[in-house]
Amino acid sequence: MLQRRHFLSASLTLAAPGLPAQPAPALQLLRGGGLVLALRHALAPGTFDPPNFQLGDCSTQRNLNDEGRQQARQIGAWFQAQGLRPARVRSSPWCRCVDTAELAFGRHEAWAALGSPRAGTESTNADSLQALRDGLQAASGHAGQFEVWVTHMFVQADLAGQGTGSGEGLLLRAGAGGAPQVLGRWALG
Question: What pTM was computed for the model?
Answer without folding.
Answer: 0.86
